[in-house]
């Protein structure tokens, strides 16, 4: 990945191969300049010979396979356990927590969050 413009405030990616692509189509992700530089460094790491045989997916686990929701949930659970939280943490709980917190503390950002989470504000309010 090469940054296309040193003056760009953000970079937008279209992700065609993802979990819900068959029902929702390609996903769009925008990242800021700092995040783009971090991703660029990660991609340099991914080109190292030691992981040349890893899956073609961008994000891979320590076993060189695509990162799954289960991998993320296990990592989150471990991280939260170190602070005393004993329940299993998963991506759905994390998403719902983000929505709840934004709706309670920053209601003016509800529409931005809904767009980012790829759902309607009414959907978030219902759940």
Give structural notes.
The protein folds into 2 domains: 1-66, no CATH class; 68-127, no CATH class. It has 6 helices and 2 strands, in the order E-H-E-H-H-H-H-H. The chain has helices at residues 21-24, 33-46, 69-81, 91-105, 110-117, 121-126, and strands spanning 10-15, 27-32. It has a two-stranded antiparallel sheet with strand order 1-2. The longest helix is centred in the last third of the chain and has 15 residues, at 91-105. It is globular, with a radius of gyration of 17 Å.
Entry summary:
The protein has 2 domains: 1-66, no CATH class; 68-127, no CATH class.
Question: Can you summarize the main beta sheet?
Answer: 2 strands, antiparallel
Helix/strand-derived category reads mainly alpha
Strand content: 5-15%
Alpha-carbon Rg, integer? 17 Å
N-to-C SSE string, H for helix and E for strand? EHEHHHHH
Seen as an oligomer or otherwise, the chain set is single chain
